[in-house]
Amino acid sequence: MNCFAFDIETIPDTEFGKEMYDLNGLSDKDIGNTMLFKHKQKTDSDFLPLCQHRIVAISVALRRGESFKVWSLGDQSSDELEIIKRFFDGVEKYIPTLLTWNGSGFDLPVLHYRALKHGIQAQKYWDTGALDNNFKFNNYLSRFHNRHIDLMDVLSGYQPKGRAALDQIAIMLGFPGKLGMSGDKVWPYWLEGKIKEIRNYCETDVLNTFLVYLSFEHMRGNLDKLQLQKELSIVKEAIRSEKKPHLDEFLSSWKE
To answer: How far is CA 25 from CA 19, 30, 43, in A?
Structure first.
């Protein structure tokens, strides 16, 4: 198994907002809130267009060989360029199966825009067969290929009406789901300097995504019952060995 589950957390791109709306002299808080207000006025939605997001955390879970590890890229002081570059460097190095929940609709498009902004190259990720013929019929970009599996998209049968929240599916399967944090709290947490809490939240989302993936693999016959139990045990032992409070809380909320 060579899998790379990931999740991103974002805030309003205040640099963009300052230029777009001529908001020189305002604080990042005021610029971000103005962006959110203007968009809600126009669309009645609190969710900004994807090109107006700035990435502040990327968490990943790598299952490779007999090992499993979950972590956030870079450290608490890492800037956006560094963590995005680390993400695509990981794809280039391991050429894994990417696993997401709504990655096609959110995480990957945002990563595309931000990588474009920062001039980050990722040849393997963008290859559709020109560099490696194996990527012609199985690449990261095509919706129905398997190098990227958007679990929300696949499990809904690619139908918008069938989509579900990760939290609900995780809880349905006996996994912890969200533990007191949600995506709409990321901006307030960022303003309060709580980047550690944001990264911790992102890591638990990645764990939920990977655990749902294991259930999906069992459902489609790629893991039998004993193999599934082995995979779940590997995850449990890995996060137990980290001895981190947010992972301990996740483990204690995990039903047998």
So the answer is: 11, 10, 26
- Per-residue pLDDT reduced to its tens digit, 176-231: 998 877 778 899 999 999 999 999 999 999 999 999 999 999 999 999 999 999 99
Token pair for 83: 């963590």
Q: For the chain, give every domain's residue range.
A: 2-252
- Torsion (CA) 195, 92, 247, 47 in degrees, nearest 10: 50
The CATH-assigned architecture of domain 2-252 is 2-Layer Sandwich (3.30)
3-state DSSP assignment of residue 71 = strand
Q: How far apart are CA 20 and CA 104, in angstroms?
A: 26
Overall average pLDDT of the 142-152 stretch? 94
Tokens 């693999």 sit on residue = 217
Helix/strand/coil for 100: strand
What are the C-alpha distances in Å from 166 to residues 102, 126, 153, 176? Answer: 9, 27, 11, 11
Torsion of CA 163, 202, 248, 170, to 10 degrees: 0
Is 204 exposed, middle or buried, given 0-12, 13-18 or 19+ CB atoms closer than 10 A?
Answer: buried
pLDDT at residue 256, as a whole number: 67
Taking the whole predicted model, whether its pTM rises above 0.70 is answered as: yes
Cα separations (Å) of 4 from 15, 17, 87, 99, 208?
Answer: 30, 32, 10, 6, 13
95-131 tens-digit pLDDT: 999 999 999 999 999 999 999 999 999 999 999 999 9
